[in-house]
Design brief:
alpha/beta; 8 strands; eight-stranded mixed beta sheet; single chain; about 40% helix; 2-enoyl-CoA Hydratase, Chain A, domain 1
């Protein structure tokens, strides 16, 4: 009888075990995105993070990460928002790595008070990479003359239609080193006293979860459901927090607007974003 009456009560008044909100962060990290290819960035995650940390009775928020990296700016913005919410709501953050949390994905993982991965997960890649293509001979072959007019001698630095210049490459490397140093500082602060081999860790290499544990990049091996039940009891429930849905049931990745005139250009942009994301994943054999 008591069980029947408990089922009639609103869920918020039932005492059936702890509920842990779960946020899943999936994909390459980049600004913008489109209706064809939503991107992982602060705009697309802010809403679900607010909802997850809004669970008043939850002692922790679980965040699942599966990302090969991408924009260091968006990675750091998501990291910062998670830490701000954790302090404001006084909740522990437990990060669980799926296939990969590398580069910017690992930067986000640093927001966790603890990082737990599968033994076969990929973690690390603490470095900075810039890529592109050069077409200095293409225009000549197709008989096209490119005309560029600038104010500022370095306005066309690293122009893909001009031969590489040593000074341009050196300048790009100074920017990469500055960003790398920010990343290193974040790792040292968040993993203080846990890192075993700084030279290897900050080299840009990536490792399995097993090796990542040995290096101090993560705190344990396991999966989310079993780990949360071990910590908070067998009756612990996981509540996946998802974005709001639009008029036609599509999830809204962030605050954005689109018109019919933008569909074609959005589709083209989506193809480019897909190619970029595929390149990021393939670096880790995925």
């Amino acid at each position: 009888m008591a069980g029947f009456l408990r089922k009639l009560m609103p869920k918020r008044f039932r005492k059936e075990g702890i509920v842990i909100p779960v946020v899943r962060l999936q994909g390459a990290i980049m600004s913008g995105g489109s209706q064809f290819r939503p991107a992982l960035n602060l705009a697309s995650t802010a809403q679900v993070l607010e909802k997850a940390f809004g669970f008043k009775e939850a002692p922790a928020v679980a965040i699942s990460i599966n990302s090969p990296g991408g924009s260091p700016v968006q990675s750091r913005l998501i990291f910062t928002r998670i830490r701000e919410l954790a302090r404001e709501k006084q909740k522990k953050v437990l990060v669980f790595v799926e296939d990969v949390a590398a580069s910017g994905g690992y930067m986000i993982a640093l927001a966790g008070d603890e990082i737990i991965a599968d033994p076969t997960s990929i973690v690390g890649s603490i470095g900075v990479v810039s890529g592109g293509f050069g077409f200095p001979e293409l225009l000549k072959k197709i008989g096209v003359e490119r005309r560029v007019y600038t104010a500022g001698e370095n306005k066309v630095i690293l122009d893909p239609f001009q031969p590489e210049k040593e000074k341009d490459i050196e300048y790009l490397k100074t920017l990469q080193l500055e960003i790398h140093q920010v990343f290193i500082s974040m790792v040292r602060e968040r993993r203080a006293g846990k890192l075993k081999d700084d030279k290897a860790v900050f080299s840009g290499l990536f490792w399995t979860g097993t090796r990542g544990l040995e290096l101090g990049l993560i705190d344990g091996l396991g999966d989310m459901r079993q780990e949360l039940k071990r910590r908070y009891g067998t009756k612990t429930k996981l509540a996946l927090v998802t974005p709001a849905r639009g008029l036609f049931g599509r999830r809204i990745p962030g605050v954005s607007s689109a018109s019919l005139d933008g569909v074609a250009s959005g589709f083209a942009a989506g193809l480019v974003e897909t190619a970029e994301e595929k390149a990021l994943w393939s670096r880790y054999g995925l």
